[in-house]
DNA sequence: GAGTGGTCTAGACCACAGA
DNA sequence: CTGTGGTCTAGACCACTCT
């Protein structure tokens, strides 16, 4: 964050504003795991002194991190690394809610989980190098005892060493974060209406061809790398996907 | 924006921060149409002097308005009232994009448009008083000549006097804003996969029962009032609904 | 009471747009 | 050249939390 654009004559690359550089520095430290999940960051003044900028500039950087849900600020307490608890995941990444209004985290049952080589499809969807090792998980999620979501999940094995030996929990993103230091920061979903294919029909105890909501999600890490590919088929009789536009 | 919490003894209602009050004042002026769409607002210093606060406080309010797409800030030019042109609507409120990636605004054909009394369904969905007059528009939207979206739109007649005589354009929200001073600020959508009903099947030249994406949207104005209810059935063979989570 | 983030102010300088 | 928003700083005071 020291000096910068002095030079002698014309220079290109006007460089990003200070607060953006501070933000990037902080993101880098978050990625490196300098602070654990839920841990308090140094105060604004400490960070400012540390990086040789004013407290106001650090504040702007922290505000932007808070806006992206990477940290949580609590007045009178401090600034904390965001936690991937169920409540947060539910709010941030789980957009299927009951028609009556209330959201409920569905229970999960793993159908299969195995390690294998990425298919051509995986490579394309996740922008992986050919021949990458991946884990592939199939599971069924139920709400109120009724199976309504069939998920097919693919994750790069390199990011999750020994994942096969793990008992997959309900909240996968929490596991990614706590056990592997891999933080899902954002995701992109593509939705379609499709006829339920045979495999999913079996899992969901529904008829082949039933209209189902297909949710195709790519999840990205703090540094923008692809962490997970997840394709879900959902029966939306008593559910809907909730989306806010503004 | 003057004095406030002096009192003599204990008072409740800690009142919102100054910048929020400034924001509200500005929103109110926007609703009242003090500045036309696309018009430049007074400079930060003028507004600050006007309201008796510092320029930094006005800035924070304007930044928040810009974050909500209510104004557009252009360095060296000024701050302008957001325009509801096709590009903005496309980006902000139209989430259906071609599978190949490119978004394209579909052409529209109005099937019917008539004035009538709100049904029980309308009343419930839009929180209207019983017996409210509404306009009901049905239209079909096509991409590349192929009909893919059947829309059923309901708007309160009170907000749109003489709407029936109007030729409904492709970009309805632009018309709402320009002709009636009604600005759609945000919307909430509920998505489901359903079997295509008979009426929509006819309009979309598809078989009854084909899986279709049902999009149920409520659009809200600057002041939070309900402006429109729109239910769309979409054929998602070559389209998908794009959603960003973070 | 001490330490934290939240608000508000004031002023300096920069980058950009337009006359 | 002037006026605009964008960045950065510095300091004051408030509200909240915990000890």
TrEMBL record, chains A, B:
The keyword Ribonucleoprotein does not apply. Residues 16-84 form the HTH gntR-type domain. GO terms for biological process: negative regulation of DNA-templated transcription. Keywords: DNA-binding, Transcription, Transcription regulation. Pfam families: GntR, UTRA. GO terms for molecular function: DNA binding; DNA-binding transcription factor activity. InterPro entries: Bact_HTH_transcr_reg, Chorismate_lyase_/UTRA_dom_sf, Tscrpt_reg_HTH_GntR, UTRA, WH-like_DNA-bd_sf, WH_DNA-bd_sf. It comes from the Bacteria. Coiled coil: none annotated. SMART domains: HTH_GNTR (SM00345), UTRA (SM00866). This is GntR family transcriptional regulator.
């Amino acid at each position: 964050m020291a000096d910068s654009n002095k030079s002698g004559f014309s220079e290109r690359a006007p460089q990003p504003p200070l607060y953006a550089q501070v933000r990037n520095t902080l993101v880098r430290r978050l990625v490196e795991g300098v602070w654990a999940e839920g841990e308090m960051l140094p105060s604004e003044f400490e960070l400012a002194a540390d990086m040789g900028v004013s407290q106001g500039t650090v504040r702007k950087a922290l505000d932007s991190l808070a806006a992206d849900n990477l940290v949580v600020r609590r007045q009178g307490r401090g600034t904390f690394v965001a936690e991937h608890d169920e409540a947060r995941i539910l709010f941030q990444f789980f957009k299927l809610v009951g028609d009556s209004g209330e959201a409920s985290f569905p229970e999960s049952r793993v159908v299969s989980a195995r390690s294998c080589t990425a298919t051509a499809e995986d490579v394309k969807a996740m922008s992986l190098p050919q021949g990458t090792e991946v884990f592939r998980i199939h599971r069924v999620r139920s709400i109120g005892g009724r199976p309504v979501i069939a998920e097919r999940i693919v994750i790069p094995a390199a990011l999750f060493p020994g994942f096969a030996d793990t008992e997959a929990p309900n909240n996968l993103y929490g596991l990614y974060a706590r056990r592997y230091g891999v933080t899902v920061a954002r995701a992109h979903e593509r939705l379609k209406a499709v006829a339920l294919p045979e495999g999913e029909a079996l899992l969901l105890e529904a008829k082949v061809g039933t209209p189902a909501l297909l949710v195709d999600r790519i999840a990205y890490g703090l540094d923008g790398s692809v962490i997970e590919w997840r394709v879900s088929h959902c029966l939306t009789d008593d559910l809907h996907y909730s989306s806010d536009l503004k």
